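Thread: Modeling a multi-component assembly for a lab meeting

Hi all, long-time lurker, first post. My supervisor asked me to bring a structural picture of a complex we are working on to next week's group meeting, and I have zero experience with this. I have the sequence lines for every component (1462 residues in total). Could someone generate the structure of the whole assembly? Inputs are pasted exactly as I received them:
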Amino acid sequence: MTTATAAGAATAARPATLAQALTRALRDAMAADPAVHVLGEDVGALGGVFRVTDGLAAEFGEDRCTDTPLAEAGILGTAVGMAMYGLRPVVEMQFDAFAYPAFEQLVSHVARMRNRTRGAMPLPLTIRIPYGGGIGGVEHHSDSSEAYYMATPGLHVVTPATVADAYGLLRAAIASDDPVVFLEPKRLYWSKDAWDPEEPTPVEPVGRAVVRRPGRSATLVTYGPSLPVCLEAAEAARAEGWDLEVVDLRSLVPFDDETVCASVRRTGRAVVVHESGSFGGPGGEIAARVTERCFHHLEAPVLRVAGLDIPYPPPMLERHHLPGVDRVLDAVGRLQWEAES
Amino acid sequence: MTTATAAGAATAARPATLAQALTRALRDAMAADPAVHVLGEDVGALGGVFRVTDGLAAEFGEDRCTDTPLAEAGILGTAVGMAMYGLRPVVEMQFDAFAYPAFEQLVSHVARMRNRTRGAMPLPLTIRIPYGGGIGGVEHHSDSSEAYYMATPGLHVVTPATVADAYGLLRAAIASDDPVVFLEPKRLYWSKDAWDPEEPTPVEPVGRAVVRRPGRSATLVTYGPSLPVCLEAAEAARAEGWDLEVVDLRSLVPFDDETVCASVRRTGRAVVVHESGSFGGPGGEIAARVTERCFHHLEAPVLRVAGLDIPYPPPMLERHHLPGVDRVLDAVGRLQWEAES
Amino acid sequence: MTVLEQRGTYRPAPPPAWQPRTDPAPLLPDAEPYRVLGTGAADRADPGLLRTLHARLVTGRRYNAQATALTRQGRLAVYPSSTGQEACEVAAALVLADRDWLFPSYRDTLAVITRGVDPVQALTLLRGDWHTGYDPYEHRVAPLSTPLATQLPHAVGLAHAARLRGDDVVALAMVGDGGTSEGDFHEALNFAAVQRAPVVFLVQNNGFAISVPLAKQTAAPSLAHKAVGYGMPGRLVDGNDAVAVHEVLSDAVRHARAGGGPVLVEAVTYRLEAHTNADDATRYRGDAEVETWRGHDPVDLLERELTRRGLLDEDARRAVREESEALAADLRARLHEDPVLDPMDLFAHVYAEPTPHLREQRELLRAELAAEAEANADAEAQAAPEGATR
Amino acid sequence: MTVLEQRGTYRPAPPPAWQPRTDPAPLLPDAEPYRVLGTGAADRADPGLLRTLHARLVTGRRYNAQATALTRQGRLAVYPSSTGQEACEVAAALVLADRDWLFPSYRDTLAVITRGVDPVQALTLLRGDWHTGYDPYEHRVAPLSTPLATQLPHAVGLAHAARLRGDDVVALAMVGDGGTSEGDFHEALNFAAVQRAPVVFLVQNNGFAISVPLAKQTAAPSLAHKAVGYGMPGRLVDGNDAVAVHEVLSDAVRHARAGGGPVLVEAVTYRLEAHTNADDATRYRGDAEVETWRGHDPVDLLERELTRRGLLDEDARRAVREESEALAADLRARLHEDPVLDPMDLFAHVYAEPTPHLREQRELLRAELAAEAEANADAEAQAAPEGATR
Ligand SMILES: Cc1ncc(C[n+]2csc(CCOP(=O)(O)OP(=O)(O)O)c2C)c(N)n1
Ligand SMILES: Cc1ncc(C[n+]2csc(CCOP(=O)(O)OP(=O)(O)O)c2C)c(N)n1
Ligand SMILES: [Mg+2]
Ligand SMILES: [Mg+2]
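Re: Modeling a multi-component assembly
Sure thing. I ran the full set together rather than chain by chain. Output:
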């Protein structure tokens, strides 16, 4: 469905940012379905601190795109009530760490309402959370909180890494009849890609990973902010004679075992790369399930390259925390290649 | 240090419940150090809904064992302030799911204050949380929330499984200069063991796992409410010809790689058993780190036996959720024994 | 006049962003809880309403007793009784129109059944066969909420959504005195007031949060005084006076429905029983206090009034008694049957479609159940070998 | 009199559990914010205090300007300016005794440095070299709190602990108008009132939470009116009148210190700058509003008063100017130097003792840094081959 402004426009792919694709997804979803409402702190006149909701209040009115009082449990809790009444709220949490006050609402209600009511009361809710670091944010502005959401049955956990996915996955999240925690990699907001906003990518079904770069030596399993790092690492690895495959998970829940395991079975080696801390982070789950399923195909243990297990560092030290190309290559180097020869 | 009532009493081991050992640990800690304060909902006259704080208000006064207003973020937040002033608060969260309202205080402050202030402002705080199911509790009274705490750097996460450990670990937690999330397995509160309350077990250093049962065929890695299940499974496994080793982690953070890996290297096979959900749960981390460290000793992938990935079920269905002896034995059976012969 | 409206040498006109600021006086509750029974106003109470309230109160009392008895027989996992609070429970349900919504807390099954939900369905959570036993849309009753005060923002959001849709719907949300201390209480009331959502917040101040008395819960003059901090009216009512509660709540619903925004009502009542059957109230309160409150029992208060006005003859008493006993007997009978549960339901509603890892676990459980059934069949066959050939 | 104290046919004596219930009247703020400057009361203001306040306000204004300028030069990661709010910031610090504690929010570095913390240390969080740059115990200033309102329960707990220890310590906690909507605000005020903790809550109502104006934040008559819902006094003060803020906060501190329990003070002020340097305020507010408030500038208000009373001669002006410029110059100079950071510090304070997995990661980083240093040395050597033999 296209909006009025799109009608008759000459369409062509041109560079767009990930943030712009998100805005477009919200706008198209709101135009397509009057039940879609956006709410959060500063989402109205300001357009959100990352401008993702820019223009929505002007176009759809303040009742559709609403500045709320400053209280995250209240935001999510009222969104639950709105969803109970048949609306499709899209909530913006301003930063990762500021979603924590809403944790009880998320875990005790959002994730459980469908199950609690034997399906009678589903909650079609999208919770947008800018996450991750690399933008020089001060304390509490750079957390990777996906481990908390993954460990909570009843939530979908989705994160785009490309401009096209930003659009497609957000549309899919809003269209889902289940609650979706939609994690937006902050440092990719301004990343650009050729993308045709007049013919946006069709909505993805949530839950399918994608091979972003085929390769034969080993698999890098990653998502969100670490995808560009892995792609860069894969390029750099060619110099060492490694042909790395890169899988972008796109969705942590549901988890696409099929795509990931098919790749690892092909390559026989895998490294999971994410910015979230390693201990108790997503990589443990991923490594464990890949190992359970592909044990006899593995030439080496599945390794993890992740953020350090520390509170997110201050801006001047964050580069030491973030998994970069070198750490990925080091891990690839530790995949027991000797065994080959 | 013994209390007045202990003086001169004839001492001897006699059956005590895990809850009683906790009470005794609190009492001894309060007697030993006037900085130790207990606070929470109903911890005063009632002695807590599980009676763990029974008698403390009477013995030490309401200023030392305080009924607070009903607000978990407020409880933990004021405890932070008390710790800032040099006290050693011991907070009781009434049930696992009712700790969620305090999540922001926990993650954004408790876990980070020492690091934030370069060590100037440590928070010697113990947060007692009854966790897990098996007691017929209605919704929100049986969550296993340890995955959330494990994924939060700055917290220690400790859980006793025996009467002696209940005392020793709680004393250690209160003595720690770092915040400790102290998870009390609800269904073991009434479990009994011979224990001498007049000569309580010396305080354990937090962070050491223990082999509860030596064995040679495979290792069961477990903690808290699942320890008795694993011990029972190990007994039952003898009939199948398996001699299982059982490791009780006692502390999820710090994690005792040494003890666990030594066992797995010996046995070559491992199953992680816990009540928490599998997906994104502690088992993923444990399996991943054991595999990273013991890959070439493993005859089979590390398997996980865990709660189902569903919201905790209602009482009448909980037995289908809880990992029991049969599921553990099934998993042991899937450890690729054919490869042996 | 506020600082922003002052004019003076240094002080220019107030910036518009500061508007509006309202007069607090109309928001403050009366110093004394409103009551009808035992006052002159009782004469004006509608006989039909008095009779209805009486029938519901008596039935409610019986319901509470029966449910508590069922815990002793192991037919309910737990029961938080509303004995002594029936006036609030009943009035909360009766003041609502069909299209309105009720948001109960875990103690409010009496309000839920008064609204029309089948009692066995209302008790599902406490029986332990599922989390919610009724379809919330059927009677417009949200699931019983266990985490305290968390249902309040839901009520606000629902009422707000209805208003946005142009629907004439009011939400009435129930919470205890203890629940008012939670952050969600604060956030919900604030959202409601800012959005002028048609919500009535009913605080049943029954004196205790488990063992914690009100004096340790708040230092406020009354819980109703919290309203002024949100810019909504606060009303204080004798929660054991069914007529007064009904009137104050009806007014509040009317106010909300008319677009006047939310209202906070504190009903002062008393929890005559322990917190739940599992609780031991002797640890934290004396008999004398309970006895004092028994002297102010909501059922008694209403019966005396009906009797005084000659509205309660033996026939009416008998009819009410029969109705109560019928409810109790039905409850006993139906709760003594074991519910038929399908463990596979555990996977059916986690998501619209189970995720791949849930599908795997479902198959595992299916296999376990099949093995269990087979083992049971074997055991039966062995126990009755002569039947093995049948 | 409340329902619980009524006596009558059906109504026995009130159970003690309901006590105490207090009279709300003394808790309510005045309808009009308290102010001194421009009123007759100004004549009674102590000249020494006026001069001190003036010096601190002017210096504070300069500090704000300098810090904002440093963001443009990339020397601070971000700066939330308190320009326009200096009267609140300065008074909050000045009313406290040495032994008292200040709990600032992220905007309150001016209060922090007024209390004696070195400005560069106060700005550490915003510069980006660490989370907190000062030892909280040195000046009894808690770390700047980024998650809104979360510092308020800390202040309550600390004040409560001090009181339990018999120490004569008051905690003053700062929060914004937006922060009052958070659950933690509610829980903190309630705990403080119930425990009669010696805490002064200072709400700087500067009209906005980033882009959200007060009218979307609350429908209350004023934020100070929230006090009555907790049973503590609420006070409304003109936050741009330094003398008034100083007096109201001093009273509140005295009240708390004397065992009277907590006080809530709302200071009505205005954020003259954008939310931070990264914000674009033109998106949500007009120049006219800002100009209106410039006419009620705290520095101007005080200067006019000093001038009127002949307390500000050219020498005094110069002295204040010099002091401000010295502060600014020092800040510029010290912030233009790059801080020397040791990445290994990342592991030093997560726990008293690093866990085994942190020790592993520490060794990994140590190896990386060594490799990096080596690579850098090589690169330098190659860039200057003739120096390779040195
Ligand atoms: C968030 C949360 N914390 C704690 C509990 C445990 N709990 C259940 S009932 C109760 C007391 C509730 O008191 P009140 O709100 O006055 O309601 P009442 O029981 O008197 O009806 C507590 C502490 C809970 N259910 N939810
Ligand atoms: C819990 C939380 N939610 C959201 C934010 C993001 N945030 C930072 S400042 C701000 C506005 C604060 O407004 P106010 O409390 O009025 O303080 P002011 O900025 O006006 O000083 C917001 C929403 C935060 N820091 N913490
Ligand atoms: Mg109560
Ligand atoms: Mg503000």
